[in-house]
Amino acid sequence: QVQLVESGGGLVQAGGSLRLSCEASGRTFSTNVMGWFRQAPGKEREFVAAMRWSSGNTYYADSVKGRFTISRDNAKNAVYLQMNSLKPEDTGVYYCAAGRGIILNSARSYDNWGQGTQVTVSS
């Protein structure tokens, strides 16, 4: 079991930035990928970004490419999501996830989830 704790959400105006953090504890060696998903009210949870822990390779949803950056701190077992040029459509609850899956943009590849952090972008 891996425990994930997110932080860094908040309210920001369109065009602004936020940095989300996710700290992992427990059986972190059992996972090889960490990702971020988000869920807007009334919508399904969607993939945002992911990183393979071993290679450092990163993957992004088309909607956030060029604006969001996923990074990690191995010493802290932490992953971050730097979000720039935020838009109102980026509003939602952002979840950190960890797993061993192959298809990184599928929630099925992740079996450990954080509690989520709210991001609200005002127009």
How does this model look, in words?
- This protein has 123 residues and is mainly β.
- It has strands spanning 2-7, 10-13, 18-26, 33-39, 46-52, 58-60, 68-73, 78-83, 92-99, 110-113, 117-122.
- The strands form two sheets. Strands 2, 4, 5, 6, 9, 10 and 11 form a seven-stranded mixed sheet that branches. A four-stranded antiparallel sheet has the order 1-3-8-7, with no helix packed on it.
- Strand 5 and strand 6 (58-60) form a beta hairpin.
- It starts with a strand and ends with a strand.
Number of H- or I-type helical stretches: 0
Shape: globular
The helical percent reads under 10%
Average pLDDT works out at 94
> Could you spell the SSE succession in H and E letters?
EEEEEEEEEEE
Low-confidence regions: none
Instruction: Count all strands and give the number.
Output: 11
Please state the CA-atom Rg, rounded to the nearest Å.
Answer: 13 Å
Structural class: mainly beta
Q: Terminal Cα separation, in Å? A: 39 Å
Beta-strand percent range = over 45%
Largest sheet: 7 strands, mixed
Write a compact overview of the structure shown.
This protein is an all-beta fold. Helix content is 0%, strand content 54%.
